[in-house]
Amino acid sequence: MKPKVNSLWKEVAFRSGRIVVRCPFGGTTLGRGSGELSHRETEHLRVLIANERKDRLALVAPLVAALGHEVIAREIEVEDVGAVTARERPDVALVGLGESSDHALGLIEKIVREAACPVVALLHAPDPTFVKEASKRGVFAYITDSEAKDWQSSIDIVLRRFSEYHELEGAFGRRAVTERAKGILMERHSVDEPNAFEMLREHSRSTNRKVVDVASAVVDGHRLLPKQRQPPS
Question: Is 141:5 a contact under the CB 8 Å cutoff?
Answer without folding.
Answer: yes
